[in-house]
Write a structure and sequence with these properties.
By secondary structure, this protein is an alpha+beta fold. The chain has a single domain, classed as Sandwich (Immunoglobulin-like), CATH 2.60.40. It is built from four helices and eleven strands. The strands form three sheets. Strands 1-2-9-4-5 form a five-stranded antiparallel β-sheet. A hairpin with a 4-residue loop joins strand 4 and strand 5. The radius of gyration is 20 Å and the shape is globular.
Length: 198
C-alpha cells in the first residue's frame, strides 16, 4: 500500500516538475509584458506597438537605478548595450520598424513569440547589416503585400516581444549609442493590407 502511495506521489511530483518547466518561460514573459505595459522602465507605461529606449541613468548605474524604475525591468540590465523594448499587438495591423544607419556599430532587434519563448526573427548587424532600413512586421492573419524593397517579418503570433540592443563602446560613447538606439522606432503601416482580427 505504501509503495502505491509512493508511486502516486512520484508521478504527481514529475507532473508538477514538467508543467513548471513548460510554463515557466511563458510566465516570465507574461510578467515582463505586465511590467512593460504598466510601469515601463521608470518613466511611465510603454503603450502597445511602441518601442522605448531605457533611460541612460539605468545603463550608467544598473545596480542603483532611479527609484521610479521597475525592479523587474532593471534586474537583467547588462553594461555594454542600451536596451530598447516594446510589446506588439499585430491584431491592430501591420507595423513598420525603422532603424537608423548604425555605421558599423553592433546592434540587434530581436522578435520573440511569447507563446513558446522562441525568437523568430532578428534585424541587426549580423542578420541584416548596419545600414538604415525599414521592415514590415505582420501578424499571422495579415493579408496584403509588402512595399517593394521592404523586407517582411512575418510573426507566427499576434503578440510579440521586441527587444533591441545597441552596443556602447565606453562611457564617452553612451550619448551617441543612446541617440541611435532612440531612433529604432515603429509606425503603423497604413496601406496595402489588413489584419484578420479574429
Amino acid at each position: 500500500m505504501a509503495y502505491q502511495h509512493l508511486l502516486v506521489f512520484g508521478a504527481l511530483l514529475a507532473a508538477v516538475w514538467f508543467l513548471g518547466i513548460y510554463f515557466w518561460p511563458v510566465l516570465i514573459l507574461y510578467m515582463y509584458k505586465r511590467s512593460i505595459l504598466s510601469q515601463g522602465a521608470g518613466s511611465g507605461p510603454i503603450p502597445l506597438n511602441t518601442l522605448f529606449t531605457w533611460p541612460q541613468e539605468i545603463f550608467a548605474d544598473p545596480l542603483h537605478p532611479p527609484a521610479s524604475a521597475s525592479k523587474f525591468m532593471t534586474s537583467g540590465v547588462n553594461h555594454d548595450t542600451v536596451i530598447t523594448s516594446g510589446w506588439l499587438d499585430l491584431r491592430q495591423g501591420a507595423l513598420i520598424l525603422h532603424v537608423p544607419d548604425m555605421a558599423g556599430r553592433y546592434y540587434s532587434v530581436q522578435f520573440t513569440n511569447p507563446m513558446n519563448n522562441t525568437n523568430f526573427a532578428y534585424v541587426g548587424k549580423r542578420a541584416t547589416g548596419t545600414q538604415a532600413g525599414e521592415y514590415l512586421i505582420t501578424g499571422p492573419g495579415w493579408k496584403g503585400q509588402a512595399p517593394e524593397g521592404m523586407p517582411q517579418i512575418a510573426s507566427p503570433n499576434n503578440a510579440v516581444l521586441v527587444l533591441g540592443r545597441t552596443l556602447v563602446a565606453n562611457d564617452s560613447d553612451l550619448p551617441a549609442a543612446y541617440a541611435l538606439a532612440s531612433q529604432i522606432q515603429l509606425t503603423p503601416y497604413a496601406a496595402g493590407g489588413s489584419a484578420d482580427r479574429a
